[in-house]
Amino acid sequence: MMSFSLPEELQMLRDNLRRYVDTQMIPHEMETLVDGELKPEWREKFQNGMKQLGLWMMDTPEEFGGAGLTLLQKSIVWQELGRTIALPAREDGITGPVVRHILFQLEGEMREKYLMPTLRGEKRACFAQTEPDAGSDPGGMRTTAVRDGDHYVINGTKRFITGAGKSDFMQLMAATDRAKGSRGGISCFIVDMNTPGVKLTAQYQTMMGDKPWEIVLDNVRVPASHRVGEEGKGFGLAQKWLGAGRVKHGSRALGVAERALEMAVKYAHQRSTFGRPLADRQGIQWQLADIWMDLDKATMLVRRAAAMIEEGQEARVEAYHCKYFADEMAFAAVDRCMQVHGGIALTTDLPIERMWRQQRSYRITEGASEVMRTVIARHVMKAYA
Known about the structure:
- This protein is an alpha+beta fold.
- It is 44% helix and 16% strand.
- The protein is globular.
């Protein structure tokens, strides 16, 4: 697990994907998006590229017809794709339909109605957990699901839900016992978007380009059969996905930082001031050295977390650590890259400003840096007491 080099097959995967990113994505990255989404022609092109590379449906287990990549393999893919801004800040779908861990828990009729059509690309799903007063603190969510015979009646508001406007159904987290919070009080439900009482009430234009939605649920009746897993165990289902999601954050951040380092080094050799290239100046050299050293540390953290999760080990703290350190590291790397480039980096002629905006957002979403540090601090206080 602590090997410092990638196995040969992962090196080949990385090298093949890097060539594709360098030749087919980066040269066109300033023209692939419109309103924060991939243009249809580029989506088709990139999806075909992923199929040729054997990465189609990489998140889907082999038993469901997918490639069944390990988390370490997927981390390499996320890292390489993170080197380009050709893709949207959030879910791009170029490696196949976006299917979270929750849907693979469905059985029987529910599996046929929701999972299989999603895998075939016939339906789309969104994940609805964040609320106006419960972002980093999901245990404080106010959306409630109250049992009423063979149904649940759901009331509440979800905010910043990516893809809700194009989704056929949502994977909804709701409190079935608010007193218990995240410790046995949250349940997961599959809710069709056309269910009476489900309303899309607002769409937010973010600085990253994506446009998440607000969803209001007003006395929404959902069959009890649409609950995923046991009552009160929904947060555990989400956490299993979030652990891998934090490795994804860290992996993507590695790609962002490496691209920032590549651009900064290249520009430092090209740009001269007062008769000398920037690359000769110690102030610049040290900034680039810091990026490289932090990138090296983050790589170890990401690969350790991926390996531990893949082996079924308890890796909650390791996942928090890699998410926190890598996201903070990548933002600092892009910020330094921007500083090295000077005024030109503030224009939209270069990808740096978009990299900066996107990476800044990841220090907040899917677990703010302060929350990551708080969890890590609790671990430290207990481990060294």
